[in-house]
Design brief:
Layout lengths: L1 H18 L3 H40 L9 E7 L10 H15 E14 L2 E12 L13 E13 L2 E9 L1 H7 L12
Parallel strand pairs: 1-5
Antiparallel strand pairs: 2-3, 3-4, 4-5
């Protein structure tokens, strides 16, 4: 009898403690649920930024700016200059895209890294294309292929791109196009 009481009483105490209301436990569980909900919302927001960044890249290389207003803010600023483009806002991006898509065709990209954090997305990719149009004054089409690494940084506000920084292996590209001394054969 003593032995069965030694086992039964602790079990009964444990069962009673699990079934009753514990405000501290309830608060901890509510806090945990709120953190999980916030993490899920943040994750969904970052995934949406990544999808928008991919659309931005697609419009850049296809030359199709239809629907650009859905992903780019009116006050858009590109910190990447291009000869002959002096417009501002969303028109600046349309002009940059038009100029780039006439200078380079057969564009293909190979995603290497895409990182979304806070209000920014960083895309690192390999760009292949053919210089089939003039790139600016004194830079006629060479009809030579390019194969360079590129990094784009996009800043978002309210789900739309408001700023863009673009960096690429410009010297390597110019060598591949035969516009600079170096590897004239277009090697990597």
């Amino acid at each position: 009898m003593k032995y069965s009481l030694l086992i039964t009483l602790p079990l009964l105490a444990m069962l009673c403690s699990c079934g009753g209301s514990n405000p501290e436990h309830d608060t901890m569980m509510a806090d945990q649920q709120a953190m999980m909900t916030a993490d899920s919302a943040k994750h969904a927001e970052l995934e949406q930024l990544e999808r928008t960044a991919q659309r931005f890249l697609d419009l850049w290389f296809t030359g199709n700016t239809e629907g650009i207003e859905e992903i780019v803010a009116e006050n858009f600023v590109s910190h990447m200059s291009m000869p002959g483009v002096s417009s501002t806002g969303i028109q600046q991006l349309k002009d940059l895209v038009a100029k780039a898509s006439t200078a380079f065709t057969e564009n293909r990209t190979e995603d290497m890294h895409l990182i979304a954090e806070g209000d920014r997305v960083v895309m690192h990719y390999r760009w292949k294309g053919v210089n089939s149009g003039a790139m600016g004054e004194g830079m006629p089409a060479t009809n030579k292929p390019i194969d360079v690494h590129t990094v784009d940084v996009l800043r978002f506000e309210k789900g739309k791109v408001v700023e863009h920084w673009g960096y690429m292996e410009e010297f390597k590209m110019m060598e591949q196009l035969g516009m600079m001394p170096g590897d004239e054969a277009g090697g990597n």
